[in-house]
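Quick log. Single chain, no ligands specified.
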Amino acid sequence: MSPNTPRRNLIIGTAGHIDHGKTVLVKALTGRDTDRLAEEKERGISIDLGFAPLTLSDGSVIGVVDVPGHENFVRNMMAGATGVDLALLVVAADDGVMPQTREHLAILELLGVRRGVVAITKIDTVDSEMVELVDDEVAELLEGTPLESSPIVPVSAVTGEGIDELRGAIEREAASVRLRDEKLPARMPIDRVFTLRGIGTVVTGTLWSGSLSVGQRLELLPQSEEVRVRSLEVHDSEREEVFAGERVAVNLAGTPRESVSRGDVLAEPGVLRPTWMADAHVRVLADWPKAVKRGARVRFHHGTREVLGRIYPMEGERIAPGKGVPSQLRLEEKVVLVPGDRFVMRSYSPVTTIGGGTIVDTHPVKHRLHDPQALDQFAKLESGEADALAAVHLQRAGRPLSASALAQVSGIPLSIIDEGLEALAGDGQAVTFAEGQSRLYLLRDRYLELQETTLAALEKFHAEKPLAAGIAKETLKKQLVPDWDARSADVFMDSLEKAGAVEAEGKLVRLPGASASVTSEQERALNSIVDRIQASPFAPPTVSELSAELGQPKQATSELLALAEKDGRLVRVSGELYFSRAAVADVEAKLRAGVSPEGITVGDFKNMISTSRKYALPLLEYFDRTRVTARVGDVRKLR
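-> predicted structure:
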């Protein structure tokens, strides 16, 4: 394709019963035989997906996916149909509508295909009256479906009759198809994996969103492995860049063939998280003979992947035929989903299409039956309104998050999350916190709830520990928000301080204006403690010894000592030892005056101040911490 050729990236997918001429028709339209396997040539039927380019009158090229029609290969059919923008439904004039015609049509509808063209093939084998009868039968089949108004074109791939008319109908319908979003993060379900000598591993698929370029690093999901794009092809032509809606072959640099399978997904790194569970609006086909029971095991088809799982309606014990209800899907393997994705469900055994639906939430929690909160959140998420989506996921998170972090945990595109958060902040439903170059968001109701809880916790702390200058910030964070990351907890505490709701002093937090409250009895005890320590300047009693002398709990003694440290009378040297400030200054002066360039040992130091090792070693370690001395082997030297 030349640089001036217009680009209209979309995929046409065939559908229809076996032996109705899909592959022959594709060859008549494109000039390419899509049956590539020896077994397909030998048996005369399509087994796996086939691909071909179709050139339109304006010179643009669109992709054609030819799917197998045999009932044994419906899973292969769905692997191709999930990327289809425009359906080419094929019905043979000598057969009419058949079982796989109906099943393929149902699958297309479940996957959200809204436009199509119908080809009545093999008209050279029947008379005109038979063609008219099949035309009427097809029109009746399409009635009430999204393809109801699709053009119906009689053709013969053998004589060429109607081929030009069919090509024109396809082009007219293609002009009305809504193209895929190239601005979203890249995502490509893989439908083929093979190796080429001298090239390595090649994967193919329809690029669902975004773009890919040579040299780009991607994430292979659900295994979360990093891969790199060595080269790209579209319809056998090398390209430096490819776009959403194109059939793409990607050569992966250094990736072993055995590490990739059909059903895996190539995606922009760090955007999507595989999941075992999803909430979805599930619909059972109207012609399915019985209700689907809660917990029924099903085959879940999404993208090019099939996994087993179970379905749990959120409002009842079963889903009746023709009904659609909120449900939870619990899967046996990880899948890669985005809200709004379509899927198909088939029965476990015998294998038949029973329904499908639309993904609403990609990372829910397990719901109990008739859970009102879960149903309310489901309705908000299903609405698709940006502010509702952001509000539900912020409520679930319960902590401040950036737009990018919320997009990742929710699976919702960043552009929609950005829009929703701005709306919530704009009407006061969310509060924002500055964090580096980005902003964090928290629902206002959650913020006010946490603020009230924080103030209540501080009031309780001050009541229980009137001598304390405040509670350690880290202790308070662990008490209030134990499951938050440090960044979220810090920005919340900072916001309370900026709002004047709390005061911070170093690592302590307290209520505004709160200070240590000392009774006369405690004042006497405090003075007694200070006097005892000052009386033995270089060998003071320990905290435990002081507590025993006073006949009070060790915690109460520690609180009094902390007050004396705060008012400057004492210095805390270790967990058990406090010295008078004058004693510490005296020792430091002796140390500075008496240490030789070679340094001083613990033994020399204890002799210098006439004390025991019990006191000398903690003092030296204190001077190490305050950068008066530095330990070098077994000696201390002045810094």
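The radius of gyration is 37 Å.
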